[in-house]
Amino acid sequence: MIGSLLPLFVAIPLIAAGFLTIIGHRPRLHLVVMFAVITGALAGSIALVAALVGGRTYAHGVGSWGFGIAIPFVADMFSALMLVVTGLLAVVCVLFAVIAHRTMSRFFAPLILVLVGGVNGVLLTADLFNMFVFIEVMLLPSYGLFVLARYGEAPLGRIAGARLYVVLNLLTSTIFLIGVGFVYGTAGTVNMAELAGAAAEDSTVAIAGSLCLFALGIKAAIVPVHGWLAKAYPATSPAITALFSGLHTKVAIYGIYRIYAYMYDGDARWLWIGVLLFCATMLLGVLGAVGEKTTRSILAFHMVSQIGYIMLGIALFTEAGLAAGIFYLLHHMIVKASLFLSTGAIEVTYGSGKIGEVQGMAKREPILAAAFFVAALSLAGIPPFSGFVAKMSLIFAALDAGQIAAVVIMLVVSIITLLSMLKIWGGVFWGKEKFPETPPITAGSALATTQVAAQKKVGAALMAPAVILALVTLGLGLGAELLMSLSQTAAAGLLDPTSYIEAVMGS
Amino acid sequence: MTLAITAGILVAGAVYLLMRREMLLIILGFVLLSHAANLIIMAAGGASRREEPFGTPDDISVVADPLPQAFVLTAIVIAFAITIFMLVLAGTGTDTDNAEDGATDEDEPQPNESGTAEPSMSNEREEASA
Prior knowledge:
By secondary structure, chain A is mainly α. Chain A is built from 21 helices and two strands. The radius of gyration of chain A is 22 Å and the shape is globular. Chain B is mostly helical. Chain B is elongated, with a radius of gyration of 22 Å. Residues 101-130 of chain B have low confidence and may be disordered. The chains are: A mainly alpha, B mainly alpha. At the A-B interface, helix 5 and helix 6 of A face helix 2, helix 3 and helix 4 of B.
């Protein structure tokens, strides 16, 4: 019964998006419908997590066709947790976007709804080709949002960023598609339940599947192929960077976890490749961050580094490792969005994200500074916050698996992370008050043209999203048992795909 | 084998075009690449069966696999949509369609239109030309 409701996670956002495009430009109605749908999706996914406690799996073959013919929608604890966190991020980041850019583009709400529908689709599908389609459903509105989010006009730098973003994503999608073609050619199916273990038994399927993993690896910005993210993400508006930081790369990570756990059955022969690449990702990502000069490009490089941490969970492939990786994934999505939103609020209000151009924010914006500080410490992994639990459990899991080198890199990278977080802190929040000379052109600070910079402040509504997420990371740090036990359920589902396969077959 | 050779030629052409400077050539490269992907998927259905999967065939063993055909049909429209968007992006922004314009390349001095550009981006650009 619950299974047959799963397609609604995709259907309702898409129907609402279609409805909003038909009724034309009515900004208030657009906002009401958009928030109703995305908060509804969040509530639905929280209910789904509650229904899944205990390691159950729900599945539904769309159209009620038999197993192997229908496209299956499956929800286990991993996808449900991802649904909750992506849902939360969508609500919070869209709230920020609406407040920061009051003159919204005409199609902002429909694009967000299609994006949410696409993300939900990728998380729930159990079919490789359908995953490709939903990734495209997620990406196409993203291209629009990338250039459109503010004013309905796009500056030159953003067009250049969009070109890079579109070209990169089309290339990886095509590689993924070719991989799916080869998987179909070698294994004869693209259904995840039928593919279970196929790549561990047959090396031709493993090569075919590795193309899919490679494509998802580019989308997740793993080290040899990470440069695009550091260039493209800072090029769009702050709200959209925050939104994308939680959705796109993380959905790719989810795909890698799923494919490697099921198709490859966690094949221990190839785990060393993962350990190597992901350690390099951690190290090079954070080194890139130290060298950057604007807050958003520092945070973009940090994202690369943290993706290395998350991915290490799958490269360990033990129950503790997977649980730590999943916990890290959920924690990191929240923290990263919080960081992008708090620095984004400053960028929107004061017009610059460059280190040293805006200073003294700690005194002027104490609440926002506190939110940034909490999220920064959590990112570096300091005790009261969720990052500590995530890093701690990952380090223990790596020790158990005997990956001493990985542990050393993790610890070293944490120090460098803290260093560059302090660089943002020192450059933006500390010191005497200082503002950029050129007035910002953002809609959120339309006042700027008439008033001097010294009279502006970040509004309560604009800082609320960052503060909410900072409180969530504090809550997850103090009450880590709850999310940890849910992550362990999710990890158990990846380690032993039996219930997943049975659910899909019975759907 | 013919399918493999054709796909190989298409991929080679695509890779060559993707390395070029002009956005339009890059887009043409993507057109070739998605052609190659579609051909590979058609080949994945088994190229030995050539009858069309239509109506009620007498002998099921000579009928082509319909599933890859549906895959390809879907992939074609997706690639088509993105190609259109890329063509629009190629025509927007600067007065040329050179892919290395703008903030994606810091090695070259950029045409500075920071009056319309977002402050953070114009900062990057100043930094690049400095």
